[in-house]
Every structure is written in structure tokens, then in C-alpha cells.
Amino acid sequence: MRRALLNTTRGTALSVGLGERSRQLNSCAALVYRRHGHDLDTVRMEEMSLPALGRHSVRLKMLASPINPADVNMLKGTYPILPMFPAVGGNEGVGEVVEVGSEVTSLRPGDWAIPWDTGFGTWRTEAVCEAGDLLLVPRDMSLLGAATIGVNPCTAYRMLHDFVPLKPGATVIQNGANSAVGQAVIQIAAALGVKTINVIRDRPHRRELEKELMSMGADVVVTEEEMQGLRLENVIQDLQRPVLGLNCVGGLSGGLVLSSLRDGGTMVTYGGMAKKPLHIPAKALIFRNITLHGFWMTQWKRNNSQDMSRLVTMVTTVCGLMKAGHLRPPHCAQVPFHQYRRALQATTQSHQRKHVLIM
To answer: In which domain of life is the source organism classified (predicted)?
Structure first.
């Protein structure tokens, strides 16, 4: 696992007044954990020393870093990739380059950059890392957009490009449509001229959510209950039957997506929020020729790390969509870095808003 270079000398829990000390050249403030556990008290803010800048390394001042469900799963020890201890939390974020090694040509002081791989440890005020661990992003995009660009929007982009050739007018169906990935799917698909059917769970303020998703470019928003009770023709209206289905829920909801696909369609599973198995009728595979795939953004990045051109192209394209107004950042609650416990707790309780640590 790639991670920022860090001397892991055990530190002391820091007070709110750490701000000035953490900016010293030889140290940073970091959210560190030394064991896994469901108790979020395993995370401590500590002062940690930074290594000297090497010829190929970069000193990065972190600006903002979200707390994603995958980050919490890593803390709990339930994620497929786990860091060595002591570990700094956080896999996504944006920082400003403040210093580069003598042989670094890809970045320069003042640039904004994001880590491309899982396990970087973005919950810190500064980091020293290899230049090859970072990707350049435009400084003229929003801070929250840059901080959250590397995981969810890129996941949506890949799933819309890698499995089925989607022509304008084609239809995609997805569940979990109000998730950060789901919202990105709606917007990127709209930019491609692709129609979307978006399945959500019923909720008290369903109409407000439907209006919001429609404002992003959704063509149809329907609840799981409505999918069960209505004929498919009434759901899809005048759209083509979906050629691609995106499933992040599993269980009954995943089955609804699969059964809605046209013959020869493809379903991509990238999550299992319901924590229930996906029931796949044999006739869907035998008689309807449905193709099933799984997708994991981390693995895609690592598979393409030997030739960074695809990574660079993807990030550049997604950033371009955001700068052009075709893709908006998810709803975020900005939380001062020293109030990290509040952000961690909120993330475990609800995924309605993404909490972003502001350094």
C-alpha cells in the first residue's frame, strides 16, 4: 500500500491550540490509529515528525480531506486493504505543494494535487511523499470539488465508460441514486446524453430528494416500492429499456435493477449497502444473456499504475466536467480539523452529507 512518508514516533494527544506548532517544518498534526476497533476513540490527533525532503519527493500541505465510509471501514478493520500500524487515516483529499525535490518536474510549489492510491493517510496537516503518488488538479476548481474528486466521481466515470458502449439516448438504471456515486452517475450521464432511471429508498422527504436529483439531470426517480408495484413500462416511460445497471445496494434492490435490464444487458456491482446477497435467477444468465461484473476503484487504479496516462486522463476529464458546471461536488459539511471526532461520528450515523475536514 502506498502511503505518505512519515516518521511514526509516538506523539501526544493534541489540543485545539496545535495550529501554530503543526506548521513547523519538521512536524505535522495527524489523526493516527494503532489498532482496529468499532470504537472511534481508536483515532487520536498526534504531533508527528516528517522526513527530510528527498530528490524525488514533495512536501504537501493538506487543505481538505473527506471522511468516506471506506475510511471508517479501514478504522474498524473491515476493509479489504488495511494499513500497517501506526496508520494515518484518510484516503482522499487535496493539498497544496509547498516544496519539491531537486529532480521533481511534474509538480511545483503552489500546485494543487491529490493522492491517487488508497492508504495515503490524508487526515494530516502536511505530508512528505513521492511525486509519483500525486496527481495534479486545477487550482481554479472549488476546494470541496478537488477534495472529493478522486473516489466517487471517478467511480461513476469508469462505470459509465468501461462496460457498455453508451450512445446518446441509451438508458442506465441504478440504485442508491442519492449516494455520492449515484449523483455523479446522473450528472456525467446527462453530459453524455445518456438517460438515467434512479432507484431510491422511500423516505419522509422523498419529493424534495426527487426534485434535487431531477435538477442534476435525472430522467426518472422511483422508489424501490414503486419498482415492485408498477409495470416496468410505467417506470421507464418513453425511455429505452436499460442496457446498463449499476448496483451498490444488493439484496432485493439489486434484483430490481437486474430484472429491469434488456436482454444482453450488463449489471455492475460496486457496493453492498444492504448487506444482503444478490439473488440472481438462472434464467437471467441462460435465456436473457445478462452479464455481471464487479467494480472497485482502488483495484482499477492499481491495475493502471504502470502507465499513469489513463489515470491522468480520467482525473483531467472529471475535473473538466466539474469546472464546466456539468458536475457539482456532493453536499458537504465542512468541519475544522480539530473537531474530527464530530465528523467521524456523523459519518457513522448518516451518509446524507459528506463531512470534510478542513485543515
So the answer is: Eukaryota
In 3D space, the residue among 336, 314, 310, 344 whose CA is nearest the CA of residue 327 turns out to be 314
Q: Are residues 117 and 247 in the same domain?
A: no
Task: Give the amino acid at 261.
Answer: L
Residue 166 lies in a domain: yes
Asked if 79 is an active-site residue, the reply is yes
- What is the distance between the alpha carbons of residues 344 and 324, in angstroms, rounded to a whole number? 32
pTM: 0.90
φ, ψ at 299 (rounded to 5°): -65, -40
CATH number at residue 272: 3.40.50.720
Q: Where in the sequence is the domain holding 142, given as residue range(s)?
A: 16-148+329-358
Pick the catalytic residue: 33, 79, 270, 340? Answer: 79
112 CB contacts (<8 Å, ≥6 apart)? 63, 94, 95, 96, 97, 136, 137, 138, 139, 146
pLDDT by residue (tens digit) across 313-355?
999 999 999 999 999 998 899 999 999 999 999 888 765 688 9
